[in-house]
Design a protein that fits this description.
single chain, alpha/beta, two-stranded parallel sheet, Protocatechuate 4,5-dioxygenase, Chain B, about 270 residues, ten-stranded mixed beta sheet
């Protein structure tokens, strides 16, 4: 069984040649020796016309290993709260296989994460990231994890489980948290709120991020995947975070009265 694309020709081109052209525009060419090793990235997941440049600029700066663990929010409410997909993904640029060794290790380590394909069927937050990773890593394998709302204590437990599985894994792997920032607020309001959340990521403060997003009513849809990713990266030895780019949908539409914010960050 393979997962078929849910949002090709909507969020990104479904035609392979058009998709390659789009990715060539969005992902700057960076010499391999100029790329940095990283434990994790935070990437936006809107349509490529809106957030593709931010995602591409971020991915281009990182040495992407063959295995990427992608965590994204559950926009549809289908499936388990922590749903790991184990079906290969048929994508316009070719099939992407699941890293079954790492996926099995995560499922063995975790009392929270379960195997569940239902949560992935319609979810776009992970799918839109895959072509970017294919662009820079032709031997890409993924471990896709769709995440519903969790308490901070649950985020901590899941992060410990992920870190244990990744520590036992004998190969490099990159964590990728998929999130957009504020939704449908004025540019001024969105930028102010999003800066509060971004500051907590830059401070490597996952609890501060979680509390700030909830306390300041920031409509950051992937706050849970980002919190888990930051916690996991810290367990694996993260010492710094860097903002590559922040923008909003008004850059593409010209409408600054109702924007969605996008941020690309690197955690190393």
């Amino acid at each position: 069984m393979t997962r078929v694309p849910a949002v090709a020709d909507r969020f990104y081109p479904g035609d392979p040649e058009q998709l390659r052209s789009a990715l060539a525009m969005f992902v700057p060419e960076v010499a391999e020796e100029d790329k940095q090793p990283a434990l994790a990235v935070v990437l936006p997941h809107a349509g490529y016309v809106y957030s593709g440049a931010t995602a591409g600029a971020t991915i281009s700066r990182v040495k992407v290993p063959e295995t990427v663990v992608i965590l994204g929010p559950n926009h549809h409410g289908r499936g388990a709260p922590l749903a790991l997909g184990t079906e290969d993904w048929r994508m316009p640029l070719g099939t992407v296989v699941i890293d079954r060794q790492l996926a099995a290790s995560i499922l063995d380590q975790s009392g929270n994460i379960v195997e569940d394909s239902q949560a992935h069927l319609l979810e776009h937050s992970l799918e839109v990231q895959v072509p970017f990773f294919q662009q820079v890593q032709p031997r890409l394998r993924i471990v896709p994890l769709v995440v519903a709302h969790l308490s901070y204590q649950q985020c901590q437990a899941v992060a410990r489980e992920l870190a244990a599985a990744l520590s036992a894994y004998q190969h490099p792997a990159l964590l990728a948290a998929s999130t957009d920032m504020s939704h449908y607020e004025s540019r001024q309001q969105a930028s102010r709120k999003d800066q509060l959340a971004i500051e907590r990521v830059l401070a490597l403060d996952p609890e501060g991020l979680y509390r700030t997003v909830i306390g300041q009513d920031i409509s950051m849809c992937g706050v849970i995947p980002t919190t888990i990713t930051l916690l996991t990266a810290l367990e694996l030895g993260a010492t710094k975070a860097e903002l590559v780019r922040y923008t909003d949908s008004g850059e593409a539409t010209g409408d600054t009265a109702q924007v969605v914010g996008y941020a690309g960050l690197i955690i190393s």
